[in-house]
Specification:
Layout (H helix, E strand, L loop, with lengths): L9 E4 L7 E15 L23 E4 L4 H12 L9 E5 L2 H9 L5 E4 H10 L3 E3 L5 E9 L6 H11 L1
Parallel strand pairs: 3-4
Antiparallel strand pairs: 1-7, 2-5, 2-6, 2-7
Length: about 160
């Protein structure tokens, strides 16, 4: 929508492939592999998860267009796997819905540590040590659109 000029400003996760955009990283987040305490992998939470096979669990994931889902699929491919061969128990439209389903025992997921933080603290989710990339949150604006003073100040604040 920013590239088309429909909105002045946008925020996305991960990467953007669009010409004519001013793209600025405004925050970074760590991804984490989490399961419910009742999940068989939970006993490996404090050790390296290389002893688990990612295909041995059902998965609860965001919709295919989401950045988190894209990172999960990239991770699977980097390990020589095919994400289409995984059992996807649920595809949900929000991080909160994914977190709740995993807490209820529906499967494993990869999600933002920020989203999982309260559940990890409460013990309703267990994090496994798994090599996941950090991701950037990006602010986008069209390079050819007029920047108002309010937008300029907002850009500066968001970039701090």
């Amino acid at each position: 929508m920013v590239a088309e000029g429909a909105v002045d400003l946008g925020f996305v996760e991960d990467q953007v492939d669009a010409d004519g955009l001013d793209v600025r990283a405004v925050a970074q987040d760590e991804l984490v592999l989490v399961v419910a305490p009742s999940h068989p992998w939970a006993r490996h939470g404090s050790t390296s998860a290389d002893i688990v096979d990612l295909r041995d669990s059902a998965w609860v994931l965001r919709e295919p267009e989401s950045g988190t889902r894209g990172i999960f699929e990239k991770m699977v491919r980097s390990l020589g796997g095919d994400p289409s061969g995984f059992e996807i128990a649920l595809e949900l439209p929000s991080n909160e819905a994914v977190r709740s389903a995993v807490e209820a025992g529906a499967g494993a997921t990869v999600m933002s540590r920020l989203v999982a933080a309260s559940s990890l603290s409460a013990g309703t989710l267990t994090a496994l040590r798994w090599p996941l990339p950090s991701r950037d949150f990006l602010m986008l604006r069209h390079q050819q659109r007029y920047v108002t003073e309010a937008m300029r100040v907002f850009f500066e604040m968001a970039s701090e």
